[in-house]
Amino acid sequence: MEDGRIKSAIGIGTLLEDGIGDTIRVSLTEDPEFEIPVCRDLVKRYSEKTSAPTTEENSFQHSGYDPFIYKRRESIEVGNIGGKHVPVVIADLSKLEKITPAHLQSVGYSYDAVTDKWKISDAAADYIFTGHQIIDFSLPGTLRVILFPAAWEQAIQTELPDISKFFPIYEDSGFAKATKVHTSLNFVMVDAENAGDDNPWIGRIANRRDVVLCLSSKRSNAMQTVRHAFTQWIKKDFQNPVILITDSGWTTPDEHLIHFATETGALLLDGLGDGICLGYTGNAVMENHRVQGRTYLPVNDIYQFTNNTAFSILQATRTRISKTEYISCPSCGRTLFDLQETTAKIRSVTHHLKGVKIAIMGCIVNGPGEMADADFGYVGSGPGKITLYKGKEVVKRNVNSETAVDELIGLLKENGAWVERE
Q1: Total structural domains in the chain?
Q2: Are 78 and 178 contained in the same domain?
């Protein structure tokens, strides 16, 4: 599952980004041979690194940022971004020749022509970037559009029904020089390498209550460069919300997942970032990744893949919860049931329980410790026997494995954690 790869990349990749560690091990609830390719994809990111973090980029002294203590960076509220809002997701649809309502299904919005209504999923993008393209159909209630300035100025001169949902995005110098900007929300792109005092435009943008900054870097050590920009802004008490822009130039789904999760996840774990936008550079392509005849993460829709990846990164960093959280272990000699089959079965009946954390552990030896922060636990306690937990407390012992999933559902219902699927 992609969630395991994303969690591994965030946990291990964050350390590797800072040069910590020389041996890695990835654990997935899958056949063990599928763990090795993920390790290789993680490691090869560093085989061609040409630039390393400088002393300055690793120095947090006097910045107010402490890498050992989680604290979300304070930011002003601009629209629904920053402040106490959860991080937003921006989907880049600018490469589509003509955006239609059908395309929005890939980013969490399904249109029903019969009822003329939109169905919005828990993993629905908050904004779409359309570049030069002006959307000419009615949008779902919560969706907003980001365009280049010329397209935005053209759009606001029309009589489109959703014109209030259109917002411009500028280069930093372009915004500083613009004669016409949005009254409440403007996106401004900044290269992290040019985010300090040598950028003459930053001072004119900082702390404006109508500006959200979009921060990115093309350097090979992009994460450290972006983090360094944050430390400079924290020192100067710049409190504009910041969108993390991360592009991938890799090829396979696993490679993209690991790249996005490592670079973006590392910053979110540090409390940095009020939103994310994932994309692809140059001629980066998406290919199905096959290992021993099995397709890894088949990709039929790159936009759906990218949107799901963004929400999974936010879920894994616990910065925005949009689905059920599963904590499961890899198979080993102590596992007392078919872990993959059971995990799949539990997922199939509980995946709609947004925010509920369910642990699925193969044995009683390590299970209770590894599932310490789960809301509910399903733990093998003997051949054909399951112990069910609520938090750290045992609720039912020696439940027959044939009925254990139904017993788990009953436990969820008893504790008010169950809702019926629509």
Answers
A1: 2
A2: yes
- Buried/exposed 318-346: b ≥16 CB within 10 Å, e otherwise: ebbbbbbbbbbbbbeeebbbebbebbeeb
Q: Which residue has the tokens 């109508």?
A: 210
Q: Are residues 418 and 342 in the same domain?
A: yes
Per-residue pLDDT of the chain (422 residues; tens, 9 = 90+): 689 999 999 999 999 998 899 899 998 988 888 899 999 999 998 886 555 554 444 556 556 778 888 999 999 999 999 999 999 999 999 989 899 999 999 999 998 888 888 999 999 999 999 999 999 999 998 999 999 999 999 999 988 888 999 999 999 999 999 999 999 999 999 999 999 888 889 989 999 999 999 999 999 899 999 999 999 999 999 999 999 999 998 988 889 999 999 999 999 999 999 999 999 986 555 555 444 444 444 445 889 999 999 999 999 999 999 999 999 988 787 888 989 999 999 999 999 999 999 999 998 887 888 888 899 999 999 999 999 999 999 999 999 999 999 999 999 999 999 999 87
Range of the domain at 360: 324-422
Does the reported pTM lie above 0.90?
A: yes
97 in any annotated domain:
yes
| 23 inside domain | no
Reading the block at residue 120, the tokens are 């919005």
H-type helices in 237-338, by residue range?
253-269, 302-316
Residue ranges with strand state E in 76-158: 88-92, 109-112, 117-120, 127-131, 144-147
Local structure of residue 34 (DSSP, 8 states): G
| 187 and 225, same domain (yes or no) | yes
Q: Report DSSP state, residue 121.
A: -
Helix-strand-coil split of the chain, %, nearest 5: 35, 20, 45
Q: What is the C-alpha separation between 243 and 188, in angstroms, rounded?
A: 10
On whether the CB atoms of residues 299 and 305 are closer than 8 A, the answer is yes
